[in-house]
Task: inverse folding
């Protein structure tokens, strides 16, 4: 009747071709690539696209940090990483800034030290880490080499316990764009129930998966056929209550929802001495 998945944008893009042929709805809770927007009639997602996250980061850089020159670190082999890099470059340009240099974390010759030297020499005043999960370790090398010299911004794949554990003090004040954070609405039913179930805090991926599941349940309740589920989700009046509020879909299959910016600060919630804290 429908599916919830997948994780990486590259996998979702490949699988969605099969789902579209079989007229089977898929709702991705995690894949953010802009290539999924308008991909087909049966492809939806509960996570905001890279278009929204990139604009939020670019706006923070030019207005709050009051900086215009960015060095971007990304993975050329990742659809997600390429997507958010492209969107960030466009958003920053529209905000009056520019990407002064780009560094491919997947390159066999990548060196965090040399990259930092080049970034500074080329006028970068902010480092933007748009790594995917597979290149997070190399992105964290950049964090260590930087020694808090330049402000750090990052995409949602950097939101991970490893960042707090390995980045530690050097990651302090790094700003990360995520779809949802548990401290943004601590009194919600989802937050309370998830803590009782799991004995701890869940992250944005769990919340978006919950939203995708609730949307699929609501659509199945309307008409439990493949075509019926698609028609229900596509209806402008469709509404499901999720962890992060109302779940509605645009004609493109995207969810029209803002992202949450969080900052790494000293804290005890994670157990590593540092936490991601929502920025008001």
Result:
């Amino acid at each position: 009747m429908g599916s919830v998945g997948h994780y990486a944008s590259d996998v979702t893009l490949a699988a969605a071709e099969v789902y579209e042929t079989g007229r089977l709805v898929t709702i991705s809770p995690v894949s953010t690539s802009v290539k999924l927007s308008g991909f087909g009639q049966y492809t939806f997602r509960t996570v905001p696209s890279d278009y929204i996250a990139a604009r939020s980061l670019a706006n923070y850089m030019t207005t709050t940090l009051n900086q215009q020159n960015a060095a971007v670190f990304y993975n050329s082999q990742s659809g997600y990483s390429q997507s958010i890099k492209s969107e960030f470059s466009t958003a920053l340009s529209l905000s009056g800034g520019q990407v002064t240099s780009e560094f491919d974390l997947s390159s066999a010759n990548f060196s965090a030290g040399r990259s930092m030297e080049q970034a500074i020499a080329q006028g970068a005043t902010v480092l933007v880490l748009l790594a995917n999960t597979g290149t997070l370790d190399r992105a964290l090398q950049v964090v260590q080499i930087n020694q808090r010299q330049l402000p750090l911004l990052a995409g949602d794949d950097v939101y991970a316990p490893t960042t707090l554990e390995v980045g530690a003090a050097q990651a302090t004040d790094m700003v990360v764009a995520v779809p949802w954070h548990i401290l943004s609405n601590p009194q919600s039913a989802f937050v309370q129930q998830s803590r009782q179930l799991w004995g701890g805090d869940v992250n944005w991926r769990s919340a978006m998966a919950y939203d995708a599941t609730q949307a699929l349940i609501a659509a199945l309740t309307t008409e439990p056929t493949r075509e019926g589920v698609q028609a229900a989700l596509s209806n402008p009046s469709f509404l499901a209550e999720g962890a992060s509020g109302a779940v509605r879909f645009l004609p493109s299959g995207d969810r029209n929802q803002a992202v949450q910016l969080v900052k790494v600060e000293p804290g005890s919630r994670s157990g590593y001495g540092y936490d991601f804290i929502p920025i008001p």
Notes: The CA atoms of residues 69 and 98 lie 5 Å apart.
